[in-house]
Amino acid sequence: MSTELLNFASDNCSGVHPDVLAAIGRANHGAVKAYGDDPYTESANAMFRREFGEHSEVFFTFGGTGANVVGIASVARSFEAVFCADCSHIWSDECAAPEKFFGGKIVPVPSQFGKISVDAIVACMGENRGVHHAKPKVISITQPTEWGTLYRIDEIEALAQFAHSQDMILHVDGARLSNAAAALGCSLAATSSDVGVDVLSFGGTKNGLLGGEALVFINPACASDAGFIRKQATQLASKMRFISVQFESFLTDELWRRNAKHANQMATRLAQQVENLPGVSFTSAVEVNALFPTLKQEYIAPLEEKCLFYMWDAGASIARWMTSFNTTPDDVDAFANLIREVAESN
């Protein structure tokens, strides 16, 4: 085994797909207009419209938090409320950035392994007290969830129907939407625009891009102020072509699916090799490229000496292992062998 630490910490730790790097290189010549008024961005926008609908509007941002912030701030005002899972990224991992930029209230909803239901949202909305409560405006879900679980297509549709019946917006944090679509065996549209999603943060950084996310307004009526908000939120890239050309590559011949499918397969491979070991059990089914094993306490320190990963819930001894587009079968096998060695010695 190499002395270099194995990486199962995050798909953010991975490098850049060669096709994406090549695309950046092709765009790196000559001069084009700045701030997205260039042929690369025009081409990428056309590709997004083919994926998500001809009326959709796309705004590229630097990162996932930026996409979420601009998306939510574009549709919610300071006296309105956003309902999301109690483990969601916008609630627990974005330093209150959405609240700072839209100025309103985020309401955490009790979740089951990251998933929220209409009933749970209704319970958190409570009795309508008019101006004395923040006005419900947005339901935000993560697909796949922070626990690596999947909303089925009918579940997303039910949430969208409820949101629209309440004059609310359905926002999806799709930082790993590619992994969800690959796991469900469907198109990107099938888990978003086809089932009533209004606003989508579509991730690329975690799936082979150098850096860049796409905020997709599937409902174009939600995008009227998005350009101004993106600028104010410091998410407007001057050399936009180097973000948009990455998405051109990403959407060509479904590179997004190939990368995500491989990452998912590597997670399944790892789960299959260690799931029957003593002292290792999985809190939920492995559906995408995230694994959440409960580990015997004595295993943790020896594993951390040779592998990068995070403890998701240290008190409950739950770790998080992530695979990515460039995780190899040899990486998986080496980690599985290490886990076996640690289990045998403890």
Please explain how this structure is put together:
There is one protein chain. With 346 residues, the chain is of the alpha/beta class. The chain folds into two domains: 6-13 and 256-345, Aspartate Aminotransferase, domain 1; 18-254, Aspartate Aminotransferase, domain 2, CATH 3.40.640. The protein is 40% helix and 18% strand. It contains 13 helices and 14 strands. The protein has helices at residues 18-27, 39-52, 64-75, 89-92, 97-102, 118-125, 153-165, 177-184, 226-232, 241-251, 255-274, 297-306, 329-345; strands at 6-7, 57-61, 80-85, 105-109, 135-142, 169-174, 199-203, 213-217, 280-282, 290-291, 293-295, 307-308, 310-313, 318-322. Strands 2-8-7-6-5-3-4 form a seven-stranded mixed sheet, with helices on both faces. α7 links the parallel β5 (135-142) and β6 (169-174). α8 crosses α11 (255-274). The chain is globular, with a radius of gyration of 21 Å. The mean pLDDT is 96.
Key structural traits:
globular, Aspartate Aminotransferase, domain 1, 346 residues, 3-stranded antiparallel beta sheet, 7-stranded mixed beta sheet, alpha/beta, Aspartate Aminotransferase, domain 2, 14 strands
What is the 3D form? globular
Main sheet: strands, sense, barrel: 7 strands, mixed
Radius of gyration: 21 Å
Number of helices: 13
Counted up, domains total 2
Q: Residue share in helices?
A: 40-55%
Strand content: 15-25%
Content-based structural category: alpha/beta
Q: How many strand units?
A: 14
Query: Segments where pLDDT lies below 50 for 5+ residues?
Result: none
pLDDT averaged over residues:
96
CATH overall fold name of the largest domain? Aspartate Aminotransferase, domain 2
The CATH architecture name of the largest domain reads: 3-Layer(aba) Sandwich
Q: What is the class of the largest domain in the CATH system?
A: Alpha Beta
